[in-house]
Amino acid sequence: MSKNLTTRSEDYSKWYNELVVKADLAENSGVRGCMVIKPYGYAIWEKMQAELDKMFKETGHQNAYFPLFVPKSMFEAEEKNAEGFAKECAIVTHYRLKNDPDKPGKLMVDPNAKLEEELIVRPTSEAIIWSTYKGWVQSYRDLPLLINQWANVVRWEMRTRLFLRTAEFLWQEGHTAHATRTEAIEESEKMMNVYADFAENFMAIPVIKGLKTETERFAGAEETYCIEALMQDGKALQAGTSHFLGQNFAKAFDVKFANAEGKQEYVWGTSWGVSTRLMGALVMTHSDDKGLVLPPSLAPVQVVIVPIFKTDDEFTAISTVVEELVLQLRKLNIAVKFDNRTTQKPGFKFAEWELKGVPIRIAIGPKDLENGTYEVARRDTLTKEVISKEGIVNSISVLLAQIQTDMFDKALNYRNSHITEVNSFDEFKEVLEGKGGFISAHWDGTPETEEKIKDLTKASIRCLPLDRVNESGSCVFTGNPSTGRVLFAKAY
After folding, report:
1. What percent of the chain has pLDDT over 90?
2. For a surface tag, which of 96, 151, 468, 488 has the fewest beta carbons within 10 Å of its beta carbon?
3. Across residues 328-351, what is the average pLDDT?
4. Total Cβ atoms within 10 A of residue 203
């Protein structure tokens, strides 16, 4: 199988699609718009899942599971949410098939098996969860309710791309209920910060924390907090969202509690989630024309050892030394693989593990045995060095931490050099088409201007940065007064 990839400069979209498939992360399935996540890709997702799950539990959340199907009347209860997802819903109308009398060997929908009420395949779980919470919350003593679920959801996308946009995808969704508005807002901000921490410290992806505009908000939310990342092609990617729901869902599903004085009040809600879209972000932030580049924190294999030999005796001698090194590295919880296949040559193995983004590759041959050394190659910089046998374990441990830091710094430098302030619409368009990245510009605060800019340029307001400075200015499009800059970009 050829490992050659289309280059990023040649066709970034094609490069991405080829890389996801050739690196064995995922492939298209027999179901339109759905993907098969392959073992190597799923191993990365499992590492993401494990770390996020730990972070959720450390902040007091518990996992639960809710049904895949939502009765249509229940789904409609919160109008804005229902309207927001209506065009993406898959609907179950019947519960049985039968043999088609006109087409032997074929099946047809049994017209006598029509459901009394249609079921929505969840595009998100607010409706089913809030209808459940009604029975779980009676008193202020039952609050806060801090629940997360790991699940799949279905959004019937017409244009799909592996990991970034699929009809079915994996995610987690947190849903919490609180006694006060302040507590719910604190929860929304806390979970945005958890996502930012994970993206930066584990994925090595710098993010900008901000608020979505009213137009870009989650359907049914009063406020949406987000983290925005920048890919190597200058497009933004929303890497996670956290929503302050106010009392919208509590009122729609009549979720009340008796406060300390015995008075009935509606609870305050939040929801927050990240999905397998993070896999796409990981690929597009770090990878190069030779394949994946994985941060050590999320790499299923952190170190691969490739023996170089001609005779069975050489292979046996190398294997004896490597087995000892493997044990030493595993004691430090380093995920190491000894690629002792005799069916492939070293050059093939080098290319394969380079494609799969393993952070460190160690090569050892007969001369290395004689000299008591190892050849150590970094995937992120494609540099090599020779390290003595005595210092190898400590060197690998230090190097993995260095790679993690260097990958973040590289992505941060790219991101920071692609935030451009503009003060005219001509400048806006010039930067957007030439340099790309985030454009920091004044906006008059109206949905009409936001929509017009999006229609003309395909750039949307990614967020109102939380750290933005209040400054008087003129809207880049209308010239009307503005109180601060927002970030625009083309986005995935």
Report:
1. 98
2. 96
3. 97
4. 27
